[in-house]
């Protein structure tokens, strides 16, 4: 059979010209019909698979061969090239055999192995590139990661203090609607127009109809204004602790939350505040909520309580009955039903409780309610045992059963069973130890510690148990073991929590336990490079403010053991013992302090002062030791002189001052020497000492002042005038010299010269409200009120925060009716000034509002205990309106505080005649001189 020519052969079945090049059937105008459709997908798969089988290769990927990896796809980008144009070993697809396939497979394995070797470096490089990109282009959540972590330390009080976000949606629309609603107009009656037309007229007639008009009570208006000012004055000071402050329209009011809630309870109980309309609305809402969701247990409870509040107890019972039927698993509904039925019938309540327990036997609350319904202890025990059969792990049920047991031995048995059943309840273990004897309790606590190794409360109770047994030497060892064990179990609580437990132990009279807790845990979490001393100081101050002095003492002792040469810690420890300890403990602390810090001048002075009050002879020895530790110290010499003066040994005081002038000569030493001679009325010697001191320190204004005052005591006014005048030129920045010179000139009758002196002092001393105050007082003494007010106005513009100037203005330049408003204005401008507080107290005193006056006097003393004038006026007030007990309490407070400042106080204390008087004597003299 002859072979046909290729071009004459018929086309294969389903042949489409150009199909390999992506062509499909097409139709031209010359065609009678559409072109033939190409083969289907199944036919193409069959044909390609048949050809692949003939060639020994796999079918193309698009028709069933599994897809290759991404790395292989990149290597076969040229697989669609023309076979006629292929080059190299595989230039013809017909020459591809099994050896070629094996070669390809071998090469592929080699490539994969090499790729695997380079993968780690490639992945590391890619990861580094991704990290660099993320670092340069961080996401939003990464930018706020640190702030999110910081939110973990926000307390509940700070969360509650966050302001609410206002609703800004539709703000413009609501404002527009509000304007439209307010723009409605109505017809105004003629009577309103007539009244408006006469509103500006002044009626000069007086109505004779006593019943037809209103009478203006000017006294009541004035009283109302005084009351308002009083409230505002109280608001300007600190609010009392435990009260809630709300601000409305610029004024503050103090609300007692406990009294407020008590008043609300009384109103609700009496039904005064129940609004029938609101009650109906609430009933409709709750009924709708119950009907919408019939299985909503809290809805039935709320509706029942509403009906009970309205007095419809029967309706409330029906509501709860329906709730129990529709919500049989709701504990709240059953509890409320038991409660409301127990008010009228205990029997019905027991039936309901039994039904509830049958449905929910695991509910501890329902069992507790059933126990409370029983009347006798035996019945309560029976129910409690039944409850424990269903809930053996309930600590509350075990506690209830144990509390119902009267016998101690039976209670121990129950505790043993309870701790065996619930071994992880530290409360049961601790209670078990408390009811046990001293020999059994440690064993019980050891078993508890093994059962709950993460419990710190068991260790603390073990420590307290040893303290109660008198074994104080074991406390530190127990707490150190506790810390090691808790650290091992990773259950160590924060340092602040340990300090709270120490304060709690001290509050329960376990001072040794508190000290042991502090010693073992106060340094937990603090590194050596931290400011541990400052942190411990703050901890001690916090404990002192809480009234836990033993805890504070332990904290300071621990800090001193780490910082033995810290003068600050030693002083804090001494102050703690002075105010909250004994004299023996104070002296012991000071002895250790001066031994550890011999170069501390303040500690030597404190030691000598405290020793002087108990043993003057020992105080002299202490001063001798201080001279050896700090030779030539000015303050130590002065303190030694003061001790000798207080004991009446003036010759010893003179010898000390003589030694000081020779070894540690200062202007202060010469000043103290002159003051001593002046007190002893050796005026010529005092003047000579001042002259000798001024030769070396001509600018020492105190020497000029003492010299001039000494001449004035001798009635040598000319010499005194010359001394003060020289002093103002030698020390032009000392305002006291100008004031003394002006007073002397006024005493001599030269008022114009006094004004000139004060004006000169005002120009030389730019920042001195004292000179301005003296100018005001000079004009007041000359009855020139208008000029005094003018000077005061300028002074307050220059020194708006000066308490002295405001006090003088309120008391001397204002009328009685205007004093309280001016005092309020002064307190707003000058924050926490004790002089102004005394002024306000004196205003209330003049109005005989004694409680208010006492409150403000107390505030002034609390604010600054070193100002003696506060004690003076308070003492004078208590002489008239106080008791002897209050007077003695004030005297003891003043004696402990040792005030030094205050105009009246200094005028009495620095008077040579009162040099050796006590604080109590000075207080009484100053109270007699006060206005």
TrEMBL record:
It comes from the Eukaryota. Keywords: mRNA processing, mRNA splicing, Nucleus, Repeat. GO terms for cellular component: catalytic step 2 spliceosome; U4/U6 x U5 tri-snRNP complex. Residues 38-49, 104-115, 123-137 have a biased composition (Basic and acidic residues). Gene3D superfamilies: Tetratricopeptide repeat domain (1.25.40.10). SMART domains: HAT, TPR. Residues 72-85 have a biased composition (Acidic residues). InterPro entries: HAT, PRP1_N, Syf1-like, TPR-like_helical_dom_sf, TPR_rpt. It is found in: Nucleus. Residues 1-138, 237-257 are annotated as: Disordered. The keyword Nucleus applies. Residues 11-171 form the PRP1 splicing factor N-terminal domain. SUPFAM superfamilies: TPR-like. Associated with the spliceosome. This is PRP1 splicing factor N-terminal domain-containing protein.
């Amino acid at each position: 059979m002859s072979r046909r020519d290729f071009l004459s052969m018929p086309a294969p079945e389903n042949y489409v010209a150009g199909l390999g090049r992506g062509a499909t059937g097409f139709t031209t105008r010359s065609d009678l019909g559409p072109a033939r459709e190409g083969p289907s997908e199944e036919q193409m798969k069959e044909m390609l698979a048949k050809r692949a089988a003939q060639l020994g290769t796999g079918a193309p990927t698009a028709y069933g061969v599994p897809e290759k990896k991404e790395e292989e796809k990149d290597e076969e980008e040229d697989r669609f090239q023309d076979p006629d144009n292929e080059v190299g070993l595989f230039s013809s697809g017909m020459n591809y055999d099994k050896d070629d396939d094996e070669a390809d497979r071998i090469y592929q394995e080699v490539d994969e192995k090499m790729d695997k070797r380079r993968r780690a470096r490639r992945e590391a490089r890619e990861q580094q590139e991704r990290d660099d990109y993320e670092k340069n282009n961080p996401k939003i959540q990464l930018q706020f990661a640190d702030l999110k972590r910081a939110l973990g330390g926000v307390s509940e009080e700070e969360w509650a203090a966050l302001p609410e976000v206002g609703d800004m949606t539709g703000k413009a629309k609501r404002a527009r609607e509000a304007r439209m609603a307010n723009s409605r107009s109505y017809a105004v009656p003629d009577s309103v127009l007539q009244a408006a037309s006469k509103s500006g007229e002044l009626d000069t007639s007086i109505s004779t109809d006593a019943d037809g008009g209103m009478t203006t009570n000017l006294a009541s208006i004035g009283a109302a204004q005084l009351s308002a000012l009083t409230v505002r004055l109280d608001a300007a000071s600190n609010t009392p602790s435990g009260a809630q402050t709300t601000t409305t329209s610029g004024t503050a009011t103090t609300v007692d939350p406990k009294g407020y809630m008590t008043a609300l309870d009384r109103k609700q109980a009496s039904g005064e505040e129940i609004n029938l309309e609101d009650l109906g609305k609430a009933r409709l809402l709750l009924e709708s909520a119950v009907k919408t969701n019939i299985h909503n247990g809290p809805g039935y409870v709320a509706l029942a309580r509403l009906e009970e509040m309205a007095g419809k107890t029967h309706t409330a019972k029906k509501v709860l009955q329906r709730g129990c039927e529709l919500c049989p698993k709701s504990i709240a509904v059953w509890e409320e039903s038991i409660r409301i039925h127990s008010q009228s019938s205990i029997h019905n309540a027991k039936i309901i409780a039994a039904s509830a327990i049958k449905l929910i036997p695991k509910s501890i609350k329902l069992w507790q309610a059933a126990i409370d319904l029983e009347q006798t202890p035996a019945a309560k025990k029976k129910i409690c045992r039944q409850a424990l059969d269903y809930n053996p792990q309930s600590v509350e049920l075990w506690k209830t059963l144990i509390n119902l047991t009267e016998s101690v031995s039976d209670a121990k048995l129950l505790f043993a069973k309870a701790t065996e059943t619930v071994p992880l309840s530290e409360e049961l273990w601790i209670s078990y130890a408390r009811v046990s004897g001293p020999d059994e309790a440690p064993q019980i606590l050891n078993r508890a510690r093994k059962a709950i190794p993460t419990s710190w409360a068991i260790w603390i109770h073990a420590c307290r148990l040893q303290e109660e047994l008198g074994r104080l030497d074991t406390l530190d060892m127990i707490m150190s073991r506790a810390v090691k064990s808790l650290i091992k179990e990773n259950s160590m609580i924060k340092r602040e929590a340990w300090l709270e437990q120490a304060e709690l132990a001290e509050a329960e009279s376990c001072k040794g336990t508190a000290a042991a807790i502090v010693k073992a845990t106060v340094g937990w979490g603090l590194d050596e490079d931290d400011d541990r001393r400052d942190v411990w100081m703050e901890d001690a101050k916090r404990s002192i403010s809480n009234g836990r002095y033993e805890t504070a003492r332990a904290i300071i002792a621990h800090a001193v053991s780490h910082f033995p040469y810290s003068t600050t810690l030693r002083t804090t420890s001494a102050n703690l013992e002075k105010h909250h300890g004994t004299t023996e403990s104070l002296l012991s602390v000071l002895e250790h302090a001066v031994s550890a810090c011999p170069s501390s001048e303040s500690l030597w002075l404190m030691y000598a002062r405290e020793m002087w009050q108990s043993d003057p002879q020992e105080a002299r020895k202490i001063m001798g030791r201080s001279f050896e530790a700090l030779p030539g110290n000015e303050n130590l010499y002065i303190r030694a002189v003061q001790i000798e003066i207080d004991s009446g040994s003036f010759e010893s005081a003179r010898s000390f001052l003589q030694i000081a002038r020779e070894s540690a000569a200062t202007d202060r030493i010469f000043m103290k020497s002159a003051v001593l001679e002046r007190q002893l009325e050796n005026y010529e010697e005092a003047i000579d000492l001042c002259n000798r001191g001024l030769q070396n320190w001509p600018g020492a204004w105190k020497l000029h002042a003492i010299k001039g005052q000494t001449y004035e005591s001798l009635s040598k006014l000319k010499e005194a005038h010359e001394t003060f005048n020289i002093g103002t030129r030698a020390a032009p920045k000392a305002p006291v010299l100008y004031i003394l010179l002006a007073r002397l000139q006024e005493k001599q009758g030269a008022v114009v010269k006094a004004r000139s002196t004060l004006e000169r002092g005002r120009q030389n001393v730019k920042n001195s409200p004292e000179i301005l105050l003296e100018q005001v007082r000079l004009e007041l003494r000359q009855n020139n009120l208008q000029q005094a007010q003018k000077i005061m106005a300028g002074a307050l513009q220059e020194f708006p925060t000066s308490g002295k100037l405001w006090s003088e203005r309120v008391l001397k330049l204002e009328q009685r009716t205007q004093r309280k408003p001016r005092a309020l204005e002064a307190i707003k401008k000058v924050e926490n000034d004790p002089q102004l507080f005394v002024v306000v107290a004196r205003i209330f005193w003049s109005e005989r509002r004694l409680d208010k006056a006492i409150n403000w006097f107390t505030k002034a003393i609390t604010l600054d205990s070193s100002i003696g004038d506060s004690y003076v006026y308070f003492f004078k007030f208590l002489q008239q309106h106080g008791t002897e007990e209050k007077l003695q309490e004030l005297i003891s407070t003043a004696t402990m505080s040792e005030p030094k400042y205050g105009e009246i106080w200094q005028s009495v204390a620095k008077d040579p005649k009162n040099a050796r008087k006590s604080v109590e004597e000075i207080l009484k003299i100053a109270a007699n001189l006060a206005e």
